[in-house]
Amino acid sequence: QAHLVESGGGLEQAGGSLRLSCAASERTFSSYAMGWFRQAPGKERDFVASISASGRSTFYADSVKGRFTISRDNSRDNAKITLYLQMNSLKPEDTAVYYCAARSRVVPSTLPSEYDYWGQGTQVAVSS
């Protein structure tokens, strides 16, 4: 069973916007910190942004600060927890596969090794 499922990737021109979503299959994830990472061809998986379980604390890589916004919907009205990444002012160097991740702690991390659950990834391509 896939715990995390991303959607919303695609091809966009430089300067454009995309919004990624990540649906978590269980409400248990409302108690987990979550994050977005990305991996370009031939490169390591890099931290993009993370958010605490409550949503009150967010962290960003310097390369996306001011352009990307991470948020989450933990609403009890919804059956699933959803994580978002709003990406504005896209640049060609943002091209990568974007992964959603969750860790069984309330405090997020910037290290991929500290996350317990991963989505399958969604491709984002930005043309110049």
Work out the strand percent: over 45%
**What class do helices, strands and sheet pairing give?**
mainly beta
Ranges where pLDDT stays below 50 over 5 or more residues in a row are none
Largest sheet: 7 strands, mixed
So what's the overall shape? Answer: globular
What do the pLDDT scores average to?
95
The count of helical stretches stands at 0
Give the helices and strands, then pairings.
Blueprint: E1 4-7, E2 10-13, E3 18-24, E4 33-39, E5 45-51, E6 58-60, E7 68-73, E8 81-87, E9 96-103, E10 117-118, E11 122-127
Parallel strand pairs: 2-11
Antiparallel strand pairs: 1-3, 3-8, 4-5, 4-9, 5-6, 7-8, 9-10, 9-11
Describe this structure in words.
The protein is mainly beta and 128 residues long. The chain has strands at residues 4-7, 10-13, 18-24, 33-39, 45-51, 58-60, 68-73, 81-87, 96-103, 117-118, 122-127. The strands form two sheets. Strands 2, 4, 5, 6, 9, 10 and 11 form a seven-stranded mixed β-sheet that branches. The chain has a four-stranded antiparallel β-sheet with strand order 1-3-8-7, with no helix packed on it. The termini are far apart.
Short characterization:
By secondary structure, the chain is mainly beta. Helix content is about 0%, strand content about 50%. The protein is globular and about 40 Å long.
Features:
seven-stranded mixed sheet, 11 strands, mainly beta, 128 residues
